[in-house]
Write a structure and sequence with these properties.
Distance between the termini of chain B: 30 Å
Oligomer: heterodimer
CATH class of chain A: Mainly Beta
CATH topology of chain B: Lipocalin
CATH superfamily of chain B: Lipid/polyisoprenoid-binding, YceI-like
Helix content of chain B: 10-25%
Number of strands of chain B: 9
Order of helices and strands of chain B: HEEEEHEEEEE
Radius of gyration of chain A: 26 Å
Largest sheet of chain A: 12 strands, antiparallel, barrel
Strand content of chain A: over 45%
CATH superfamily of chain A: monomeric porin ompg
């Protein structure tokens, strides 16, 4: 009898203890684990010059205006390069959440370009674990600058070059993202017999967030072809800069030894040497418009 | 002695009769910010909540990443810049209906209630009191409320540059459809 009443008292006590926190626990129990995708690995679809793993979501149009000024080493007469300016305009559009296309036109060799970038893997944790995000970029460039030798028989195809890249990125923490970019460039026509038509390069880039809206970015491409055998001295492109985000805009301030703003140009045709001060100051402005909600 | 035992048994029998707790995992919470420049609307249809009609206890749990926006960029900024949803993945409310005696859960109808409790957003907890309605139906209970929140109260910083695009106070809409929890 006594045992029973002790048990009952105990039972009542536990009932009374059943409080608010237990309601919260009820919610935590049997909650379905979700797939948690890493978002905003990079603020923009470019790390600096080169593409990042990011793409525009469906229905979003990104209008990009990029500038590279002349060389800092050109001195005060040229206002450290600011008297000269190279422009690239780009329109990038997200067809779906995993496919983005873009067109552009740049001062450098009066080049038109087009690309498609699709995302095949998305970094995630939770119910499905995927350590990296992977995108594939394919681009074509058409240089429309007048033929250097109009007397020669020139073909339209000689104006074209192609780039393929695999973009592999990981958002390591909220503040740090890294990317590795194996790249292949094919030029239909090269200046001399010394220059290879095919180039192989590996890019490495990353960003460190300094505040919630500003990050420090760096990007480097290692050109694997023996540079000594080319007709002119080629350097690996190195770019350092900042992303500054303000609502619908992303400003990218850049210091780079490369004048071109498309892959074919900065991977294979960078002639500036950082050590000699051959550095171009420049910026990218990205403005996003929502075309389809 | 015998009397105590009988009383206890009676209490025990009374407790499990009828559902005490009501639950939902797909409740709705939305917020709306209106300014002359821009309207911002976020919707979340995956809100989990439990209502205990015996004590008046009511809790909500919201996964911040489950708020969806018309513009993808807004969603990214919401998570990355304002709510910091990696750092603070959940928002919660833990409170009580203060005028529980005015609600007759045995009779269908709509009742005005006042809810008071701790609201935690962006890692900051504030005491809030708000009014809402409970609709008792034979198959469950619906709850609705509308109130305002000031982001600054939850240390959600809004930079000067976009200050005019984001309202000083957000209008929050809550709509829940609870179902009785079995065996609880």
């Amino acid at each position: 009898m006594r045992k029973l009443s002790v048990f009952l008292l105990f039972y009542m006590c536990t009932c009374a203890l059943y409080s608010q926190d237990d309601l919260m626990d009820l919610l935590d129990q049997d909650s379905v684990p979700e797939i948690n995708y890493a978002t905003a690995t990079f603020k923009s679809t470019r790390i600096m010059n080169g593409h990042s793993v990011e793409r525009m979501p469906a229905g979003q149009l990104d209008f990009r205006i990029s500038h590279r000024f002349g060389l800092l080493s050109s001195g005060p007469y040229e206002f450290f390069g600011l008297d000269q300016s190279n422009v690239h305009f780009g329109l990038n559009y997200g067809i779906t959440d995993w496919l983005m296309i873009g067109i552009g036109r740049g001062t450098y060799e009066k080049t038109f370009d087009g690309f498609a970038k699709f995302t095949c893997l998305r970094q995630s944790s939770g119910a499905r674990v995927m350590p990296v995000s992977v995108s594939i970029l394919s681009s074509v460039a058409l240089k429309s600058v007048k033929w250097s030798d109009p007397e020669r028989e020139n073909y339209f195809s000689s104006r074209l070059s192609y780039v393929g890249q695999v973009l592999i990125a990981r958002k390591i923490s909220q503040g740090l993202s890294l990317q590795i970019t194996p790249s292949y460039v094919h030029r239909n026509l090269v200046p001399t017999e010394l220059d290879p038509n095919d180039l192989f390069a590996v890019g490495a880039g990353g960003r460190i967030k300094l505040t919630r809206r500003i990050s420090f970015n760096a990007e480097y491409y290692y050109l694997a072809n023996p540079k000594a055998r080319m007709s002119q001295q080629i350097y690996d492109p190195l770019s350092l800069g900042f992303d500054i985000e303000t609502g619908g805009h992303v400003f990218q301030l850049i210091f780079t030894n490369s004048l071109a703003m498309i892959e074919k140009g900065f991977i294979g045709e960078t002639t500036g040497n950082w050590l000699k001060g051959d550095i171009h100051f420049g910026f990218n402005i990205s403005r996003v418009f929502t075309l389809k909600e | 002695m015998k009397r105590i035992v009988l009383f206890t048994i009676a209490v025990l029998l009374a407790l499990p009769s009828g559902a005490q707790k009501y639950m939902t995992r797909n409740g709705y919470i939305g917020f709306y910010s209106h300014t002359a420049l821009e309207d911002i609307k976020g919707d979340n249809n995956q809100v989990a909540s439990v209502l205990d009609i015996a004590t008046g206890g009511i809790v909500f749990q919201v996964l911040v990443k489950s708020f969806h926006f018309d513009k993808a960029l807004m969603e990214e900024h919401f998570n990355e810049n304002y709510m910091e949803s990696e750092k603070f993945p959940k928002s919660t409310f833990n409170g009580k209906i203060t005028n529980l005696s005015e609600v007759d859960f045995s009779k269908n109808g709509t009742y005005d209630v006042t809810v008071e409790g701790d609201l935690t957003i962006h890692g900051v907890t504030n005491k809030v009191t708000t009014k809402g309605t409970l609709e008792v139906r034979s198959d469950g209970i619906s709850a609705a409320s509308r109130f305002s929140l000031v982001p600054e109260d939850y240390k959600i910083e809004i930079p000067g540059l976009v200050r005019n695009n984001i309202a000083k106070s957000m209008e929050i809409t809550v709509t829940m459809k609870y179902e009785p929890m079995s065996g609880k």
